[in-house]
From TrEMBL:
Belongs to the 'GDSL' lipolytic enzyme family. SUPFAM superfamilies: SGNH hydrolase. Pfam families: Lipase_GDSL. One of its GO terms (molecular function) is hydrolase activity, acting on ester bonds. Gene3D superfamilies: SGNH hydrolase. It comes from the Eukaryota. This is Uncharacterized protein. Keywords: Glycoprotein, Hydrolase, Signal. Residues 1-18 form the signal peptide. Transmembrane segments: none annotated. InterPro entries: GDSL, SGNH_hydro_sf, SGNH_plant_lipase-like.
Amino acid sequence: MVAVLGILVTWGVMSAGATHPHKLPCTFPAIYNFGDSNSDTGGGSAAFYPAAPPTGETFFHWVTGRAGDGRLIIDFIAEQLGLPYLSPYLNSLGTNFRHGANFAMGGTTIRNLNESMSVNGVPPFHTEIQVVQFRQFKQRSARLFKLAKRHGDESEIRRLPRPQDFSKALYTFDAGQNDLSAAFRTMTNRQFVAQIPAIMDELAKRISILYEEGARAFWIHNTGPIGCLAVTLRNLPKPAPPGYLDQHGCIKSQNDMAIEFNKQLKKKVDQLRKKLPLAAFTYVDMFSAKLKIITNAIKLGFLDKASICCGYHENNNHVWCGNDGVINGTKIHAGSCRDPSSYVSWDGVHYTEAANRWIADQIIKGSFSDTLLPLSQACHGPTPMTT
């Protein structure tokens, strides 16, 4: 397989300078999000074990269930659209679903993995379950909204989505990284490549179901450069074997798999555009956006790309963020750094709020979108590139 990393990075740069005909801004009354911990605003914490400090310390100043010190990219997307932060579907308290819901769950994969391949030993709420939850949410909320209207319960009405808003909402997807992580543990790269078409078919089924439910605007993130995760970079073999690292100092084989995965995802999105002609699809090149901040970390005012704010990860000894452990007979508490804003990586796997903000700023303006349209125009179809 020939890596196309240079093409992907060039695409992001070209898109930033491209122009497109004027289109009116879209009015998105709600967001419905599906994915993994990169966009989980508390679903995993509600479903399994509650999250613990120091997560959430930067912006929320309390534990929200997000994998980071503050806001995620999905939070900045909501801000850009003038909408509240998304309530996790599984949260039983403090929820307001008028402007959407978040079905994302830490550990989520696109396909349904068996327990031996699950992420972190917990069978995740894969995307099929998330879409089932959405359908139930849509049906039950419509019934409750009707009852609230009948009884004049204004407080209940304000908490529930308006039935007509489902077709006007933005539907966001950010999943795939855990499919890659599970594959690296259980199969060869060649075996995984052979399975990617089936994974894409599964994702297409989920999107088609949402389309049948009235969804019309889709914002789909590809997967990031998993071979550049800080927790990996801090534990590279020394010296690294010839060909083990790519030109950015990341694990080449893992990034090659992410690139192939994204190539097939882009192809599937193009197919869905033809199959579902009433929908607008935006394919967002998160790989290039994240690679840009990782490889230019110091130039952008961050510490080195291998620096981790929270947790202990040295010589293949790991104590994850907020946990206690024993290293070489010494008890340690893996707390956070003094200034998370100077780090790209929060815990070795997830990004800090500062990094998420930088990435969000890039993708929101359309710099890494195949449609060349900003988030505010994501209800429109692709625009031919002109430079």
